[in-house]
Write a structure and sequence with these properties.
15 strands, six-stranded parallel beta sheet, five-stranded antiparallel beta sheet, Rossmann fold, alpha/beta
Length: 324
C-alpha cells in the first residue's frame, strides 16, 4: 500500500507544502472513525476524514496554514461539536490534528517513511518520532482507535500514534482488459492491497492507480500459487483456459478468503463441472462465486460490470473484517 508520507512528499515536490489532517478524537456519532486522515495541498486532497461541513472547514484551515509564512513543524488542533458547530446531522464531537509539512521538514519525513508507526505531537515544534510498536491511539489515558469513544476529544494527550501505512487485505486481480481497467480504481479506493496481474506489460493502461502493484507474469497461476491465504482473488482475464487454470490453482491451493470469476451462468456450470472432474472437492468448489458481482446491477458496459464487482468486493471486505 502507498503510505501517506510517500503521497505527502509528492505534494511537497509539486506544491511546496502539504497539511496532514488526522481525526484523533471521536465521541458519539461522526462520519469517520478515529485514525482517519487526509492530505490537503493547495491543489488537491488525498483520502478523507468524512466529507461534509467538517471536512470543508478543515480544508479551509489547512490551506490557511499553507498560505501563512512557514514555521518549523507548524500544527494546530481543531475541536468541534458536529451538530452545533458544523451543522451536521451526526451529533458527535471530534478533535482534528493539522500538521504542516514543507521542504524543511521533508528530510525528517524521509527518515520516518520506513517506520511502522509514528507519534504525532499535538503541540510545540518537535518533529514526529518513530513510535515503534506502541499502541495506536492517544498516549495518555485514552482508549485505542476503534473503541466506542476512541480518542475522546477532551482527554489530555500529548501525542497521537498512527500507522505510516494502513495495510489492506491482499486482493489479486487477474486481467487488465476493459473490465480490469474499469475495476482497478474502485478496488484501489477500497484501500485493498491490490496486485494487478496480467501476461504482458502492454495490456495495462499508462496510468496505474496509486497503491496498486502491477505484476507481469507469463504464467499468472504461479502468482496465484504464492498468494497469502487471506487474499481475495478476482479472475477476469481475456482467456477462458487461463481463467480455468487460475481457478483450479486457487481452489486446490492452501487457502484463500474469496474467489470471484467473471462470466455467465453457462460458464459457471461448465467450469464447475470441469473443476469437479479435476478433483476439486464439492465443499471447496462451492466457494467459487460466478458470476461475480451484485445481480441487482445489470448491463454489460464495463462501468456497470466494474461497479457490480466492486460492490460485491466491498461486501466481502466487510464480512471478512467482521470475521465471517
Amino acid at each position: 500500500m502507498v503510505n501517506w508520507i510517500e503521497m505527502a512528499r509528492d505534494r511537497i515536490a509539486r506544491d511546496g507544502a502539504v497539511v496532514r489532517a488526522s481525526l484523533v478524537g471521536v465521541r458519539g456519532s461522526a462520519p469517520r472513525e478515529a485514525g482517519a486522515m487526509m492530505l490537503i495541498s493547495t491543489t488537491d486532497i488525498w483520502q478523507t476524514i468524512g466529507g461534509g461541513s467538517l471536512e470543508f472547514e478543515v480544508m479551509a484551515k489547512a490551506r490557511a496554514m499553507l498560505a501563512a509564512p512557514p514555521t518549523p513543524w507548524a500544527r494546530q488542533v481543531i475541536s468541534a461539536a458536529l451538530g452545533p458547530d458544523m451543522g451536521q446531522c451526526c451529533g458527535g464531537h471530534v478533535k482534528v490534528l493539522l500538521e504542516r509539512f514543507g521542504v524543511d521538514e521533508e528530510a525528517e519525513l524521509v527518515v520516518l517513511e520506513g517506520c511502522r508507526r509514528i507519534a504525532h505531537p499535538f503541540a510545540g515544534t518537535a518533529p514526529p518520532v518513530d513510535a515503534g510498536d506502541a499502541e495506536i491511539g492517544p498516549d495518555v489515558g485514552g482508549p485505542d482507535v476503534g473503541g466506542p469513544d476512541a480518542g475522546g476529544p477532551d482527554a489530555s494527550w500529548s501525542v497521537f500514534v498512527a500507522p505510516v501505512a494502513q495495510p489492506g487485505r491482499p486482493l489479486f486481480l487477474y486481467g487488465a482488459g476493459h473490465i480490469g481497467r474499469a475495476l482497478a480504481p474502485h478496488l484501489a479506493a477500497l484501500q485493498l492491497d491490490l496486485h494487478w496481474v496480467d501476461i504482458e506489460d502492454s495490456r495495462y493502461p499508462v496510468r496505474i492507480p496509486n497503491g496498486v502493484t502491477r505484476v507481469v507474469a507469463s504464467d499468472p497461476t504461479v502468482i496465484a500459487a504464492h498468494a497469502p491465504a487471506d487474499a481475495i482473488h478476482l479472475v477476469i482475464t481475456h482467456n477462458h483456459a487461463l481463467d480455468e487454470a487460475l481457478c483450479h490453482r486457487i481452489l486446490s491451493g492452501s487457502g484463500f478468503a474469496r474467489l470471484g470469476l467473471i462470466g455467465s451462468a453457462t460458464k459457471a456450470a461448465r467450469f464447475r463441472s470441469r473443476l469437479a472432474k479435476a478433483g476439486i472437492a464439492p465443499q471447496v468448489l462451492d466457494r467459487l462465486v460466478c458470476p461475480v458481482g451484485l445481480p441487482e446491477i445489470t448491463g454489460k458496459q464495463p462501468a456497470r460490470v466494474a461497479l457490480s464487482i466492486a460492490a460485491g468486493v466491498a461486501i466481502w471486505q466487510q464480512e471478512l473484517d467482521e470475521g465471517h
